[in-house]
């Protein structure tokens, strides 16, 4: 099918950000199609499956904007590619970042495929980020949005040039969330007052321990707390309940003052040590992706985040013979955690990133 550059499929969640983005696109003259992605089931107090409230909210927004509304059922794909990944990572003693994988495979993967199927050249979302085209390099570049305390470009570090070519971020120039809510009043006052969604979408209460126990009980097994010197300190409730750098909630009195410094999934052991043992000089990352260039020529200097809301760390990045990214900090950093996304920045530009596999002590 020939793609229409005036047609945009927007991920319409029924929230304030996507509502405002859809409104702005229509004001700019685009033919807008609202697409609500159905990713998982929701249940009432009796355990019966019900239609999520956000589907009705999105449909109401589309009606008020007088745009077409569609529901894209991705529940099976989401189960196999996001939920199963989440469970598997925790069972391996790692700390997953499902939002990063979801953005690559769902929001800018399956959703983009669907948009092209219905003839839309572009997709849009309510993310606070920006895509710009560099005439000198003939490449698309990914920038942070201008909004305070909003770094949603972080979860997009793995996007390809082909994906970036077809993305519009209407909220890229918004500097404060209050502006977004003010614009949303033009569509629906009730939506404009909605709270921001936070955390993991399929675990609304944020309790990943309970999620693991209910959905993968066979992977939540008791094991040993072991001190770094080899001494057994007690029993733990399952490696999925712990993460590198954790101090609180270990569940044994003898661990007072100790931190999680390692997790051995094969032996089902959680290794404890002192705070100084949580520090590392860098890490090795798999799946390195670079946006403004194919791969660096030699070492590059960058600011690095090792978790979404972490600090910007000065570091040197190089590519190993195996094609992995080796990142060395200027100063040791605490609690670098395998499974998390590491993202590389140059000022407000995301230049790439990868998935942390191991730390450099």
Give structural notes.
The protein is of the alpha+beta class. The protein has 3 domains: 4-192, HUPs (Rossmann fold), CATH 3.40.50.620; 221-273, SH3 type barrels (Roll); 278-360, Beta Barrel (Elongation Factor Tu (Ef-tu), domain 3), CATH 2.40.30.10. It has helices spanning 16-27, 53-65, 75-91, 98-117, 161-165, 177-184, 189-192, 208-215; strands at 4-11, 31-38, 42-43, 49-50, 68-73, 120-124, 129-134, 139-144, 167-168, 223-227, 232-236, 259-264, 269-273, 279-290, 300-305, 313-319, 325-334, 341-346, 349-360. Strands 14-17-16-15-18-19 form a 6-stranded antiparallel β-barrel. β18 and β19 form a beta hairpin. The longest helix is centred in the N-terminal third of the chain and has 20 residues, at 98-117. The chain is globular and about 65 Å long. The mean pLDDT is 94. Residues 150-152 are annotated as: Interaction with tRNA. It catalyses: S-sulfanyl-L-cysteinyl-[protein] + uridine(34) in tRNA + AH2 + ATP = 2-thiouridine(34) in tRNA + L-cysteinyl-[protein] + A + AMP + diphosphate + H(+).
Q: What is the makeup of the main sheet? A: 6 strands, antiparallel, barrel
Question: What are the low-pLDDT stretches, counting only 5+ consecutive residues below 50?
Answer: none
Number of helices, where a helix is a run of at least 4 consecutive DSSP H or I residues = 8
Structural class: alpha+beta
Question: Under the CATH scheme, which architecture of the largest domain would be assigned?
Answer: 3-Layer(aba) Sandwich
Question: Percentage of helical residues?
Answer: 10-25%
Number of distinct beta strands: 19
CATH topology of the largest domain: Rossmann fold
What's the pLDDT, averaged over the residues?
Answer: 94
**Range of strand content:** 25-35%
Pfam families: tRNA_Me_trans (PF03054), tRNA_Me_trans_C (PF20258), tRNA_Me_trans_M (PF20259)
Protein name: tRNA-specific 2-thiouridylase MnmA
Domain tRNA-specific 2-thiouridylase MnmA-like C-terminal: 281-356
Family: Belongs to the MnmA/TRMU family.
């Amino acid at each position: 099918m020939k793609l229409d550059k005036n047609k945009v499929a927007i991920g319409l969640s029924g929230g304030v950000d996507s509502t405002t983005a859809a409104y702005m696109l229509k004001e700019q003259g685009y033919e807008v199609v609202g697409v609500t992605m159905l990713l998982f089931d929701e249940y009432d107090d009796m355990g019966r499956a019900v239609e999520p409230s956000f589907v009705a909210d999105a449909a109401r927004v589309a009606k008020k904007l007088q745009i077409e509304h569609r529901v894209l059922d991705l529940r099976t794909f989401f189960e196999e590619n996001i939920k199963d990944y989440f469970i598997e990572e925790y069972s391996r003693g790692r700390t997953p970042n499902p939002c990063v994988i979801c953005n690559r495979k769902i929001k800018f993967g399956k959703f983009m495929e669907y948009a092209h199927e219905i003839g839309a050249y572009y997709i849009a979302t309510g993310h606070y980020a920006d895509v710009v085209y560099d005439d000198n390099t003939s490449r698309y570049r990914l920038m942070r949005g201008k909004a305070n305390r909003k770094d949603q470009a972080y979860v997009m570090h793995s996007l390809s040039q082909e994906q970036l070519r077809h993305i519009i971020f209407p909220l890229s120039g918004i500097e404060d969330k209050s502006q977004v809510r003010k614009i949303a009043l033009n569509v629906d006052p009730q939506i404009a007052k909605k709270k921001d969604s936070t955390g993991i979408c399929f675990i609304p209460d944020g309790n990943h321990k309970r999620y693991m126990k209910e959905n993968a009980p066979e992977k939540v097994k008791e094991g040993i707390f072991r001190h770094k010197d080899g001494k057994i300190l007690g029993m733990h409730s399952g490696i999925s309940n712990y993460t590198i750098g954790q101090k609180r909630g270990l569940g044994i009195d003898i661990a007072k003052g100790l931190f999680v410094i390692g997790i051995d999934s094969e032996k089902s052991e959680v290794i404890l040590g002192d705070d100084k043992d949580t520090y590392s000089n860098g890490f090795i990352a798999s799946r390195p992706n670079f946006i403004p260039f194919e791969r660096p020529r030699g070492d590059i200097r960058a600011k690095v985040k090792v978790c979404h809301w972490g600090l910007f760390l000065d570091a040197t990045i190089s590519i190993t013979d195996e094609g992995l990214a080796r990142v060395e900090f200027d100063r040791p950093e605490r609690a670098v955690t395998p499974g998390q996304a590491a993202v590389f920045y140059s000022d407000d530009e995301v230049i790439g990133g990868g998935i942390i596999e191991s730390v450099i002590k």
